[in-house]
Design brief:
With about 400 residues, the protein is of the alpha/beta class. It has two domains: about 5-230, Peroxisomal Thiolase, Chain A, domain 1, CATH 3.40.47; about 240-390, 3-Layer(aba) Sandwich (Peroxisomal Thiolase, Chain A, domain 1), CATH 3.40.47.10. It is built from eleven helices and 14 strands. It has helices at about 20-25, 70-85, 110-120, 130-140, 155-170, 185-195, 225-230, 260-275, 290-305, 320, 330-340; strands at about 5-10, 35, 50, 100-105, 145-150, 175-180, 215-225, 240-245, 280-285, 315, 345, 370, 375-380, 385-390. The strands form three sheets. The chain has a ten-stranded mixed beta sheet with strand order 5-4-6-7-1-8-14-13-9-10, with helices on both faces. A two-stranded antiparallel sheet has the order 2-3. A two-stranded antiparallel sheet has the order 11-12. α9 (about 290-305) links the parallel β9 and β10.
Length: about 400
């Protein structure tokens, strides 16, 4: 099977509209959580979120944003940054061998709500769930394999996995893997009803943790057939080595107490990558800040890695960037890739009180210099879905 190099990164988050801004703030221990002002939050469990502020789609030079859903705008901007970072330009690739895999939880929710609120007199905007895929393929000329996944919070990692398979099985030479979502009243109210939202602040692995906070944005990664990337002189961040995706088949929202689904997804991803548990240098955890999930995730990591779990950093970036839903797995993979590049692990911020059940090195509040040659990024979601990607430095 063929190898898949990582050659481009793009991101639009509450911590900036590009990857350098996101990474600089993340490593500095800063967060992007602010009050929601784009709609009325009366009655919600919390008015704090990871909001993309000062958004101006026009500055990206991708055409007029009118008629394009906000989440799709985020995806187009992140895709443009990733492709530019990779040096993928029109005419530099075969369109039939360039594909896209996107992930989202709520698709064009903001456009649909806008249309409903204004009634038949309102201006209808595109709200087809997979419209982002069409716009991106058309704009950048990708005519190869394309699909859109929606398996809740595990979607981003799964999207990377499908794109990876397209490369290693010879079905494509270049794949764009991305995830996107936008905050909207209906999506946030639904998540609040599930009582996953913290009434205070998101605190992954902290003893005081009482829920997560959600956000919006998009992230994108370019995967490219390794020999092709080398031949054209591309700058290579690293390599995608393996992945796995499964389902707990246990409960709609709660993890099973022994974390069997997360044990399987981490163990099988390592097996797929040909990597032994002792070879991992870092795990970017799902780490939502919910009471039971964080403890279950730690238990699963210990079961797979044994004593080695205590010898490596295991951090969560959600305290900084929040949970950006369909884009969560991709932005967390980007943080993992940059940790390998710079030999520095991003911190778990808002951490103040240790929990005996979460007793690994969670990198509290300050980034940690640490050599990372091989790492895993784990995701889990509502509906019991799990995904895990394994990444290596070249």
């Amino acid at each position: 099977m063929r190898r898949a190099a990582i050659t481009g990164l793009g991101a639009v988050t509450c911590m900036g509209h590009d990857v350098p801004s996101f990474w600089r703030k993340l490593i500095a221990g800063e967060g992007g959580i602010t009050p929601i002002t784009k709609f009325d939050t009366t009655g919600y469990r919390n008015n704090l979120a990871g909001v993309v502020t000062d958004w101006d789609f026009g500055r990206w030079g991708l055409g007029p944003g009118e008629g394009i859903d906000e989440a799709t705008q985020f995806a187009l901007a992140a895709s443009k940054e990733a492709l530019a970072d990779a040096g993928i330009e029109p005419g530099s690739f075969c369109p039939l061998r360039a594909g896209i895999v996107f992930s989202t939880n709520f698709g064009g929710a903001t456009s649909w709500e806008d249309f409903v609120a204004k009634g038949n007199g309102g201006r209808f905007r595109e709200v087809e769930f997979g419209r982002s895929l069409h716009h991106t393929a058309e704009l950048f000329g990708f005519r190869g394999p394309s699909t859109l996944l929606s398996i809740s919070c595990a979607s981003g990692g799964a999207a990377m996995g499908v794109a990876f398979d397209m490369i290693r099985h010879g079905q494509a030479d270049v794949m764009l893997a991305g995830g996107h979502d936008s905050l909207s009243p209906s999506s946030l109210s639904g998540l609040s009803i599930l009582r996953t939202v913290s009434p205070t602040m998101i605190r992954p692995f902290d003893a005081r943790r009482d829920g997560t906070l959600f956000g919006e944005g998009a992230a994108a990664i370019v995967l490219e057939e390794y020999d092709r990337a080398r031949q054209r002189g591309a700058s290579i961040y690293g390599e995608m080595l393996g992945y796995w995706q499964n389902n707990n088949a246990y409960h709609m929202t709660a993890p099973d107490k022994e974390g069997e689904g997360m044990v399987r997804v981490l163990a099988r991803a390592l097996e797929d990558a040909g990597v032994g548990p002792q070879e991992l240098d870092y795990i970017n955890a799902h780490g939502t800040g919910t009471k039971y999930h964080d403890a279950t995730e730690v238990k699963a990591i210990k079961q797979v890695l044994g004593r080695h779990a205590y010898e490596i950093p295991v951090s969560s970036i959600k305290g900084a960037v929040t949970h950006i839903m369909g884009g969560a797995g991709i932005i967390e993979a980007i943080a993992t890739i940059l940790a390998m590049r710079d030999s520095v692990v991003p911190p778990t911020i808002n951490y103040g009180e240790p929990d005996p059940e979460c007793d690994l090195d969670h990198v509290p509040n300050q980034a940690k210099e640490w050599p990372v040659k091989c790492a895993a990024s784990v995701s889990a979601g509502i509906g019991g879905s799990n995904s895990c990607v394994v990444l290596g430095r070249m």
